[in-house]
Sequence to fold (216 residues):
Amino acid sequence: MNDLFEDVAATLSAREQMAAGAVLLRGRALALEDEILAGLESVVAIAPFRHMTTPGGFVMSAAMTSCGIAGWVTDRTGYRYDRTDPATGKPWPTMPESFRRLASEAATDAGYANFTPDSCLINRYLPGARLSLHQDKDERDFAQPIVSVSLGLPATFQFGGIRRADPVVRHPMRHGDIAVWGGPSRLVHHGVLTVRDGDHPKLGRQRINLTFRAAL
Ligand code: MD3
Ligand code: FE
Fold:
């Protein structure tokens, strides 16, 4: 029964090609919304959101946590994937099964079969928070895509090119949208514009993004 619903949902949700290798699946997470929000609560109970510091000494406006084998961390010494949460000294919480399933099914829908994420970075944007233009290049295997799930308040993604100065296009991301970036898009610059105030029925005044990666 569930599988049938998911197949129907997958077929109905639109696929938008953002760029070569980059696919946007509108509303793709909605069928699993309640399980994902329950998983989020269970992760945050073990590994709370925190504002990390960049190597340059800036405190990030998005609060972060992780689940899975490895978590992405930044401090004055640099960026890295760490098997231990520096805030608790313990391993990161296990990636909820609903997270893993959603990420691998979305990757398959987008044309990337056999995606096996070992890390899920969870970003929390309160109104006013943003993420400046950057590349994701701390992962070992760039052949695997990145899957990003947007929840709560809407935001605008910036999607540029391989060089930082390349032109940037904007894509609105709303609750339940999933973006998959791989192949020729894997190393493009991207960012999130300042999140505007609002009130989401399920998540209130915040935007949550789950970023799944094969990191180790
Ligand atoms: C990857 N987070 O945590 S991924 C990040 O909305 C990050 O919080 C975004 O970027 C967020 O590193 C979600 C968005 C994204 C956009 C374009 C990409 C990831 C990409 C292009 C290439 C590779
Ligand atoms: Fe990124």
